[in-house]
Write a structure and sequence with these properties.
By secondary structure, the protein is an alpha/beta fold. Helices cover 39% and strands 17% of the residues. It has helices at residues 26-39, 43-55, 113-124, 135-149, 176-180, 192-198, 214-219, 223-247, and strands at residues 9-18, 64-73, 78-83, 101-103, 106-110, 129-132, 172-175. A 7-stranded mixed β-sheet has the order 4-5-3-2-1-6-7, sandwiched between helices. Strand 4 (101-103) and strand 5 (106-110) form a beta hairpin. Helix 1 (26-39) crosses helix 2 (43-55). Mean pLDDT is 92; it is low at 91-98.
Amino acid sequence: MTSMSTTNKLILDIETIGEDFDSLDQATRENLTRWIKKDSENEDEYQRALKDLKDGLGFSPLTGEIVAIGVLDFHKNEGGVYYQAPGQKSDREQGTGNKELKENGIIFKAMTEEEMLRKFWELAARYQVFITFNGRAFDVPFLMVRSAIHGIRPTKDLMRGRYLYQNNPEALHIDLAEQLSFYGAVRRKGSLHLWSRAFGIESPKSGGVTGDDVGPMFKKKKFLEIAKYNVGDLRATRELYAKWEQYLSF
């Protein structure tokens, strides 16, 4: 296996939103709510559960979509965020050609979900190590399923085996939530915010935005703000990986 210090390493993170529950067909709404109807003892309990369900539609690739994909080269500390901005004029339509916004080594580029996914897998083909926080439980399955829905075949199998020794050396997926909790051996895994705080890393939540805010921000057309929020997750994950690699990787 190639030395970990010399391989190409890519940090990745996504932002998602859910569909509008009221716009779903009746069969889908009934499928989603049948369990909370059975488990709720009264109308108030049902309404609370229904609100949670509506707010959580973005956690599944079956009822949600990706609105931002962030990537960061670990060694170069440079990358990009590809994000949805529906209804906004493209760079070409605004007469700016293919000009892209770039800030502190990060390129921001508006794309459709399908374009984002194609771009991501094209980029992923050049890397051997992929670093996430909770990516095995969320980001990567979401990326792979949404890609299949768009008729796109992933260039790397980032879900092969749970343990690092089971991974393909050319597609090593280091999920820091798994590694820092020793594959769930500890009672509580801890969030990216808690791990960042413990290691003295600036939390991506310090700006007052959390993942729960992405849906409302998207409705308000704050597309670039969502993309910039994503950068905070990338930076924090990069620093946390450096700590894990130095002190806990064996």
